[in-house]
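Here is one such tokenized protein:
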Amino acid sequence: GTYISKDKKTGDKRWSFNTQHVYQPNARLKITTDYQRVSDKDYVHDYRNTLDLSSDNYLKSHITADYLLSPNYRIQGKIQQYQVANKKYKKASRPYTILPSISGRGPWSLGDNFTLSSGTELTNFKKDDFVSGLRLNQELALSYLFRNSYAFLKPQAKYRLTYYTLKDQNPNKDDHILRSLPSFSLDTGLYFDRQTSWLGYDNVSQSLEPRLYYLYTPYKDQSEIPDFDTSLISTSYNSMFLDNRFTGKDRIGDTNQLTTALTSTYTDNDTGKELAHFAIGQIQYFKDRRVSLNNSITDASRSNIFALARIRASDRLSFTGFATRDTKTQHTIKSSLGATYKKSSDKALRLSHVYDEDDYKQVDFAGVWRLNDNWRSFWRWNYSLRYNKTSDAVAGVEFADCCWGVRLVARHHRSDLTPKGKPENSFYVEFILNGLGNVGNDTSEMLNGIIPSYNPISYEGK
């Protein structure tokens, strides 16, 4: 946290507080807390370069309890709320407070390769001056899995039942809404393999796996249902195999579609390690989708083409990449290429190039490198090729002994890359007392989020 007795801008006392804690008294129960608060709505904007706070327009706090009722069934309870951290942000966009949410989920084997999966969730959503209420959602899925050495087949039938009891609803709308929808999917594929060689490895198996995923969900008008926690899923290779294009429970997307995909994997037979993996796929839509969120309907008969690759050139060097290609314009609209060199857990480098047609084009260089038994360096440099400016640069060193440590961090940051944007420079010092706590800015969470392979340095030496 941070405390400022007299702010230079406002003359007032200003502060921030952030704490995280995990309590696990036994193997079945785990309680997680994450609490963030600031003194005023301008704090995150004025001090957005601090390292111990989220830079979002709303700060999320929650307490979550997970309990393993049986080996196959888990129960979760959650309370979640948000603090407004940007006075210019529209109130309508503020997430709902959850007071509380109780859910249970688990699969049961019925024998003969049949599985019954069940999920139940009861959530109380609340937001001042907006529709609030209870949502009860029940999902049942029955699936069958056939698998042998050269093929698999998995049909699944799913039924969703959702009930809403609402408050502050428009007088012309119902306070009670019941929605029920079935869906059916069929996931199937073949396995082919051969012995080959790959980049100096002689004893290698290459697999070729064509896969088809069919999904059908009928249309039902859901325009009267409020949007408590739903958004459109960002499309990717993995999203082609999901049974709903929306997150949350407030929208169930109608569809009649077939995903066609092809993967190939190279495996070292001596060690069992993956040497390379390639995948490509696309969705064919047999009918226009009608269920939307914020008028997000598209009538394309085919999705974009999604491709990804992982290559392990050696024990230390690996490459990753993905690309999304628009089939209408024949342009690549998203892509990422990365190279990682990892000598050990605290000697690692990563160089990447990321492209988004509508947003950014940037290169990123990050790393962690141990200098000796007690000292370690770390850095990250992110450069925008679209604006020809450094958007974020972090560098630092840390020292650790058996009982104490110190971390020094310098940061140069631009949240606005346009000519009007100004850079922000900051410097942080953090003292760590092993087993007692930290003094100064808590930088470890931020560094872990932006620097690959970063973990707080060990106090036992190397």
In short: Residues 108-312 form one domain. The two ends are 31 Å apart (CA to CA). Helices lie at 43-46, 444-450.
